[in-house]
């Protein structure tokens, strides 16, 4: 059962969710345009929980020249589960992704 929330709590939660969607959409758009590198995203994830909670699949799929199939194959090759977030990457997975995108 869900906890009871006041109208103010519900409004605050909706605002936080909207901020998270806007932040993630902005990151993905900057990646797609080439204005932001994978390393830049990792640097932002160190400081911003919203970015750190972004799914790796969404980030990789937003990189230039990365389609759905290529993204899935790269993640399988590196050993990244499809639901993994940026904060959940191991050091080896991060290094492999950086090597791929540099």
Can you characterise this structure?
The protein has 102 residues and is mostly helical. The chain has a single domain (7-101), classed as Helicase, Ruva Protein, domain 3 (Orthogonal Bundle). The chain has helices at residues 7-33, 38-47, 49-52, 56-62, 68-78, 91-101. The radius of gyration is 15 Å and the shape is elongated.
Question: Which stretches are low in confidence, meaning pLDDT under 50 for 5 or more residues running?
Answer: none
Report the top-level CATH class: Mainly Alpha
Mean pLDDT metric: 93
| H and E order | HHHHHH
For the sheet with most strands, the description reads:
none
Kindly summarize this structure in a few lines:
With 102 residues, the protein is mostly helical. It contains six helices and no strands.
Topology readout:
Elements: H1 7-33, H2 38-47, H3 49-52, H4 56-62, H5 68-78, H6 91-101
Features:
single chain, 102 residues, mainly alpha, Helicase, Ruva Protein, domain 3, 6 helices, 0% strand
């Amino acid at each position: 059962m869900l906890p009871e929330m006041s109208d103010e709590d519900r409004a605050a939660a909706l605002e936080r969710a909207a901020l998270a969607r806007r932040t993630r959409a902005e990151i993905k758009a900057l990646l797609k345009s080439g204005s932001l590198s994978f390393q830049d995203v990792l640097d932002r994830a160190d400081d911003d929980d919203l970015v750190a909670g972004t799914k790796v699949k969404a980030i990789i799929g937003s990189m230039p020249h990365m389609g759905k199939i290529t993204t899935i194959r790269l993640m399988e090759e590196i050993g990244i589960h499809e639901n993994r977030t940026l904060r959940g990457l191991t050091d080896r997975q991060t290094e492999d992704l950086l090597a791929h995108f540099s």
